[in-house]
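During the no-cost extension, the postdoctoral fellow (Dr. R.K.) reprocessed legacy sequence entries with the updated structure-token encoder. One reprocessed record is reproduced below for audit purposes.
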Amino acid sequence: MLEYLNVEYNLFIISILSAFVLAIVAGPIFIPLLHRLKFGQNIRTDGPQSHLKKTGTPAMGGLIFLLVTIVVCLVFSKDKDMLLVLGSTLLFGLIGFADDYIKIVKKRSLGLRAWQKIVAQLFVAVLLTFVTSSVEQIGTSVLIPFTGRFLDLGMLYVPFIIIFIIGFVNSVNLTDGLDGLAGGITVVVLGFFSVVALVSKNQGILVFSGALIGALLGFLRFNSHPAQVFMGDTGSLALGGAVVSLAVVTKLPIYLFIIGAVYAAEAASVIIQVLYFKATKGKRFFKMSPLHHHFELSGWAESKIVSVFIISAIILCLIGLLAI
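Re-encoded structure tokens follow.
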């Protein structure tokens, strides 16, 4: 057992370091290229006024950590679980890329239309759900927090997982609103899945988690405040795809409500804001949604919000480990 852990631990560390170095090297190559292609971000005029100075910062930077993750994963593993999670990540990233391309290159401010996004995400969610449910090692059971017991959802598995996937993918997308926020939180969540993979002897998941952690840490060198590049929907939807597929493959979708509660809170703030606005004929529950913008308008510095949210994610992931 100790010998196994030593080998897998070394592989995990090598995956992180390899991806980190590649991302650090790729950043200075991709960022000037994005500038030359005029892939600059258009900032919402109805958002926090402090964000207007970010106009023109190149977006679609998610390509940096996505390409690095692909390379490192394929070099160190050919495991089926890894390929499944990597495929899900790339498919959601592709949806984000199409959205970014239309917004930035085609100059259509809203990108993909709402129905187009939903249909594309639904297709990937259904595909992932049916593939995982047909794999014997995964099946239709999920682990219940703090019980150590699995619950077989049977026929309810498919609709539950589809809704779960679409909900959390978009929650991660909403979290990407401050420099380094989505990337930093996702590094922490990936750390949780790395521990799970190490203990459960799942080499493929361990390599994937390590590769994406390293790639994100390298990317954060350029995305932390003040950001030189934004990940765009290319990156945020890909991260959502990574997180949900890891949860599904490890039979831990319910745990994402614990370890990914920051994502969920961001999405919940948007839902509450919209419902409250309609119910009160124009009043707002939050100063602005998603939640991180509420704290911004309350006077918190951007770096403080990011730090507090990441610390919250660390605490939540520790609770998640206790719950297994």
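The two ends are 20 Å apart (CA to CA). The longest strand covers residues 141-144. The remaining legacy entries will be reprocessed before the final report is submitted.
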